[in-house]
Amino acid sequence: MHAQFFTEAERRRLAASPYVASVTEKTVRFNEAFRQRFQQMRREGISPREIFLQCDIDPDILGETRMRGITYAMDKQRKAAEAMAGTGVPTT
Hints:
By secondary structure, the chain is mainly alpha-helical.
């Protein structure tokens, strides 16, 4: 499967979100505010699709594969931070 490229219109739409740090034809990068909000909302049981919608990020533009990848990475970061917190090692 090949990566889907973002069109110019899709890049503009994604960049309009205050939670997007940058967008290229292939990638979208999120800022720390998004990461924190995503983690909090996941803890509250909100689905990734709904989180993206509430952050003004169109999940249909991202696509299922990207959303799964982003969710996997964010969940992995959250679990690592929780594990570090449990050992008394600073997480910042």
